[in-house]
């Protein structure tokens, strides 16, 4: 049998489908960042959107960020997984088309139909608008989310097909023969292991999400078809929590693939690595009740489970991937460039974002902090400094001119944008966290006078993030011609199979 011990496979540039995903992600991400800035300016009493305008932006910002993080992560995973298994470019395109159709439906429901029930669309709010939006507007939003979810489900089912065709089963793709037997050095590469994990959890999450969306669509037009509100909330939070977590598990593949190309060191899929990803497969699906600790109606065992797994889930993040990134660059002589800087920064963001979640997952803290800006502080750290940094790093990597090679000097503007993004993201998220510590409520369009100074400071940092992201996006768009060319080639040692 051919060995699968990991070494970087040759990277011959991005396919057109991956570039289409990244262009979409870059454009939408920048727009949603502007929406986030407008929301902070409204809370800081620097502009006047009005309550309806604020909640419209909040709905689009929340739903859009979840979806576009999925598109970005999918681009990273598909690009690198294609080195090891045979994927369908047609289904990659189908997912993007369905995503854009769903986005158009969501935007129409919000900005034309005035729907603004937040991305969580908790039952029965969509059908009880008190005249603020129509049944048709609510149906258009829910149907748009269902169309987006269908596209991602097809995308992941194709990945499942490819993994099974190549490795025979998910257990082999996760490296269980090496984890539970003898580590013979033939474990699947980290990219395959991560892709198998993401596919398992996202297929389950998307099916649950599609189920509650379909039930709520029926309820809109047949109110006698009642849904248990607690069941609906549990299903929505299960779907949402699994999906948004999976985005960073997809995007981290860029770290596993790109850093070894720069350091010339393999990222080994040893027993500790395999155990970490198997544990994460289970924990990502069972951790969501830590968002429901104030819902006393939930079974007590579910809340206890969410509490305990909320603590345990930080271990694979901090110990395995974070430590692995430190070790792979330690004394490697790596020549840093924008791509590697952003990827390394993402490890800080992922680890740091886990800490506020760890604190909020403590039941007594959760009672006080969960409905404050502490929670947006947590997930903005996790996404801005973690997932989005991975995505921008991947964009820089793909568009690096082949002649420059690793460590080529970047412009002063690039370096300025990097530090602006780092300072802006840290300041923005810490403002959220400090506001939560001061009991500033989340999801409020208007704030008390004593809260407004925090909002204004947050607005300044948000503007810095938008400016830095604009430079990142413009650099990516202007260098797209380099993305399709062969670059950063890595030799494949004998005995290693590369697709």
List the defining traits of the structure above.
499 residues; mainly alpha; 17 helices; 69% helix; disordered N terminus; disordered C terminus
Write the layout of secondary structure elements.
Elements: H1 16-43, H2 50-81, H3 89-112, H4 135-167, H5 170-173, H6 176-180, H7 190-221, H8 229-251, H9 253-263, H10 271-286, H11 300-312, H12 314-329, H13 338-360, H14 363-369, H15 374-398, H16 412-437, H17 452-478
Protein architecture, described:
This protein is mainly alpha-helical and 499 residues long. It is 69% helix and 0% strand. Helix 2 packs across helix 8 and helix 13 runs antiparallel to helix 15 (374-398).
Q: N-to-C SSE series?
A: HHHHHHHHHHHHHHHHH
Count of β-strands: 0
**Which class best fits the helix and strand makeup?**
mainly alpha
How large is the share of residues in beta strands?
under 5%
Radius of gyration from the CA trace? Answer: 22 Å
Number of helical stretches of at least 4 residues: 17
| Mean model confidence by pLDDT | 90
Helical fraction: 55-70%
Low-confidence stretches: 1-6, 486-499
Q: What is the CA-CA span between the terminal residues?
A: 16 Å
Largest sheet: none
Outline: globular
Structure at a glance:
69% of the residues lie in helices and 0% in strands.
């Amino acid at each position: 049998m051919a060995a699968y011990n990991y070494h970087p496979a040759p990277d011959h540039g991005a396919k057109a489908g991956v570039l289409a995903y990244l262009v979409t992600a870059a454009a939408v991400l920048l727009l949603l960042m502007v929406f986030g800035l407008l929301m902070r300016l409204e809370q800081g009493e620097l502009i006047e959107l009005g309550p309806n305008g604020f909640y419209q932006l909040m709905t689009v910002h929340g739903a859009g960020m979840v979806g576009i993080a999925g598109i970005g992560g999918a681009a990273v995973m598909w690009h690198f997984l294609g080195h090891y298994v045979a994927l369908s470019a047609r289904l990659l395109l189908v997912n993007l088309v369905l995503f854009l159709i769903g986005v158009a439906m969501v935007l129409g429901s919000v900005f034309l139909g005035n729907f603004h029930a937040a991305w969580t669309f908790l039952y029965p709010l969509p059908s009880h608008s008190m005249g603020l939006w129509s049944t048709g507007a609510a149906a258009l939003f829910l149907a748009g989310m269902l169309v987006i979810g269908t596209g991602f489900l097809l995308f992941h089912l194709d990945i499942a097909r490819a993994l099974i065709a190549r490795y025979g089963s998910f257990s082999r793709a996760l490296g269980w023969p090496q984890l539970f037997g003898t580590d013979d050095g033939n474990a699947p590469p980290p990219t395959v292991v991560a892709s198998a994990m993401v596919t398992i959890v996202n297929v389950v999450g998307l099916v649950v999400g599609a189920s509650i969306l379909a039930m709520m669509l029926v309820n809109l037009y047949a109110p006698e078809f009642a849904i248990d509100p607690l069941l609906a909330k549990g299903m929505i939070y299960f779907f949402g929590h699994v999906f948004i977590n999976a985005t960073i598990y997809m995007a981290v593949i860029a770290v596993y693939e790109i850093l070894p190309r720069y350091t010339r060191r393999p990222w080994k899929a040893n027993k500790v690595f395999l155990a970490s990803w198997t544990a994460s497969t289970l924990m990502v699906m069972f951790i969501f009740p830590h968002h429901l600790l104030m819902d006393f109606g939930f079974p007590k065992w579910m809340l206890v489970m969410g509490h305990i797994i909320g603590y345990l889930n930080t271990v694979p993040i901090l110990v395995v991937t974070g430590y692995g990134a430190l070790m792979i660059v330690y004394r490697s002589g790596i020549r840093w460039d924008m791509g590697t800087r952003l990827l390394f920064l993402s490890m800080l963001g992922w680890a740091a974002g886990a800490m506020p979640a760890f604190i909020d997952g403590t039941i007594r803290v959760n009672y006080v902090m969960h409905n404050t800006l502490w929670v947006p502080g947590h997930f903005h750290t996790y996404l801005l400094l973690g997932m989005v940094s991975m995505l921008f790093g991947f964009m820089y990597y793909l568009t690096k001119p082949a002649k420059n090679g690793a460590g080529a000097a970047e412009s002063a503007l690039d370096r300025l944008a990097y530090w602006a993004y780092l300072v802006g993201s840290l300041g923005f998220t810490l403002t959220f966290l400090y506001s939560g510590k001061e009991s500033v409520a989340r999801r409020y369009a208007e704030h008390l006078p004593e809260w407004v100074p925090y909002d204004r400071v947050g607005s300044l940092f948000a503007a810095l993030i938008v400016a830095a992201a604009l430079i990142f996006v413009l650099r990516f768009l202007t260098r797209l011609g380099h993305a399709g060319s062969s670059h950063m080639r890595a030799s494949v040692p004998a005995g290693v199979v590369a697709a």
